[in-house]
C-alpha cells in the first residue's frame, strides 16, 4: 500500500501531545520549539515593560511537578518522528532545564551543542543577577547523518571590519540576538525573534524540508519557515494564539498588521 502523504503547511489548534501521534515515524526534518516554562507564567504579568492591553491572554502553563512527565511525553514523539538526517533545537529557561536534559539522555538523543541565547535586556531584579539568556539544546538522532550547512550564512573567506572570520563568529555557541518587542502591537506574551529561527533554518535545513513546532505561540517558527520556503507543521493549544498565528500565516504579515 502507498504511504499516505504527510499534510504540511498547516497548523492545528490542538494539544500537541495528542496531535504529534498522527505524524508518521521519521518524517520531520527539523524541530524548533520553545515549550511552556513551568514557572507559573501568566500572559499579562511579569511583562512590566509593555502595555498589558496588547498582550493576548490565555497562555497554557504546566505545573512544575508535572514538567518532567510532560517533557517526556512530547519529546518521546519527537524522537519517533524525527528523520535520522534531522535535528531539533529545544529552547529552555534555566528553571526546568534539568528535566529537558534528563529527557534528552533517557530517549537516546545526541546533544550536538548547548547554545546560549543572550538577549539585550532581562527583567530587573533587586537581590540577584538579572537573567538575560536562554538555553537552546541542539540535538539529533544520528550525529553522522544530520544535515548541517556551515557556510549557509557566511563563507570561510568573509571578514568583519576587525579582520575576524564572520563564519567563525557566527558559529560560536553564544548567540547575541535582540528580542523583538512589537511595541504598540497585538502580541502573544513570549516569542522567539525571527533572526534566531532564520539562523537555525539556514544551518540545519534545506528548501522544502518539513519544520515542526509543537508549541507555536505566535507562530514565529511556521512564519519564518514559510518565508524561507520550508514546509511547516505546528500545534497551539490556546485558541486566541492559534488564530493569531493563523492570521499571520495567511496574510503573510510579520506582526499582524
Ligand atoms: C513559550 S510559548 C512559545 C512561543 C513561540 N516560540 C513564539 O515564538 O511565539 C509556549 C506555547 O505553548 C502553548 N502550549 C502549552 N501547552 C501546549 C500543548 N500541550 N500543546 C500545544 N501548545 C501548548 C502555550 O499556550 C504557549 O503559547
Provide the succession of SSEs. Answer: EHEHEHEEHEHEHEH
The CATH architecture is 3-Layer(aba) Sandwich
Described by strand count, sense and barrel closure, the largest sheet is: 8 strands, mixed
CATH class: Alpha Beta
What distance separates the N and C termini? 46 Å
Round the Cα radius of gyration to an integer and report it.
18 Å
Instruction: Look at the structure and give the mean pLDDT.
Output: 91
CATH topology tier name = Rossmann fold
Q: Which percent range fits the helix content?
A: 25-40%
Low-confidence segments, given as residue ranges, are none
What's the total count of β strands?
Answer: 8
Query: What is the strand content?
Result: 15-25%
- Total helices: the number is 7
Bound molecules: S-adenosylmethionine
Number of domains: 1
CATH homologous superfamily heading: Vaccinia Virus protein VP39
Cross-sheet strand order for the largest sheet = 1-8-7-2-3-5-4-6
Question: What is the structural class?
Answer: alpha/beta
Large-scale geometry: globular
Keywords for this entry:
globular; binds S-adenosylmethionine; 7 helices; Rossmann fold; eight-stranded mixed β-sheet
Topology:
Layout: E1 10-12, H1 16-19, E2 28-33, H2 67-81, E3 82-92, H3 97-107, E4 110-118, E5 133-140, H4 166-170, E6 174-176, H5 194-204, E7 210-213, H6 220-227, E8 231-235, H7 239-251
Parallel strand pairs: 1-8, 2-3, 2-7, 4-6, 7-8
Antiparallel strand pairs: 3-5, 4-5
Bound molecules: S-adenosylmethionine (SAM).
